[in-house]
Amino acid sequence: MTRTAPSSGLVVVDKPGGLTSHGVVSRMRRLAGTRRVGHAGTLDPMATGVLIIGVEKATRLLGHLALTEKEYAATIRLGQTTVTDDAEGDVTASAPAAAVAAVTREAVDAGIAALTGPIQQVPSKVSAIKVNGVRSYTRVREGEDFELPARPVTVSSFTVQDVRPADGALDLDVTVVCSSGTYIRALARDLGAGLGVGGHLTALRRTRVGPYDLAGARTLEQLEEDFAVLPIEDAAAAAFPRWDVDADQATLLGHGVRIPTPELAPVPHAAFGPDGRLLALVEPHAGQARIVAGFPA
């Protein structure tokens, strides 16, 4: 196995099913030869697809990358409800086949329309959300009765690609583009509930996180053969608007000093020095650059 990549950067992994996101991080720590490895946005063990891994200094990008738009391909089964809102959990209710057969495409489209745009979503109880410092799924395992509050999320696009019968149920192949924090299995649950037949997720593949998609992703087997990272400068330039500063400004930013900014959009920007090195992620605030993550040499 060759290691010719820089020490700091991102790895776009095509996560296989059956492996946790933490399991992928563990593999990457071994391949990268460092424990300073993290990921941007958890994928459930059942899910596959794009998982962004940060190595060394690039771990400072992960919290901001996790907030970017995501895209998924999924299969929703109408007619069955599960305890986990996906195929990993036991079926808790099944609608009569006649009721499922009576669900029209018009009704499906109306249900999807109601779940598109800015919505309030109640996460699945087996999610990793913390309730009073304890993971929600831990409370479920301990038999605790509780409710999670709804949270605002945005579903930019929710599109049916195919509809087919499935042993008395109905499978929908869908694509979803959504904001960070959106639970696709909750969309499956709520769509089924709205149609009166129940629903859960049977397959999930994340196809994009921000600018990073499957075209640039590599499998664990490929990475075992030839481990490489996307250099941190290239990673930041792809994910954030670029702001080039002069030498004096670079020195000030390197010392954590807020400097005046031009008219920049109110989003994180990647500040680069005249030598092309990534200096910091900054946010414009009251005409100055507030450093949200620094990258000292």
UniProtKB/TrEMBL annotation:
Class of the enzyme per the UniProt entry, highest EC level? isomerase
rRNA processing listed as a keyword? no
Name all Pseudouridine synthase II N-terminal domain ranges: 29-184
Which residues does the UniProt record annotate as the domain tRNA pseudouridine synthase II TruB subfamily 2 C-terminal? Answer: 240-295
> What is any Pfam family matched here?
TruB_N
Keywords (alphabetical) are:
Isomerase, tRNA processing
A Gene Ontology biological process term: mRNA pseudouridine synthesis
Family note:
Belongs to the pseudouridine synthase TruB family. Type 1 subfamily.
- Name of the protein this chain belongs to: tRNA pseudouridine synthase B
Q: Which organism is it from?
A: Actinacidiphila paucisporea
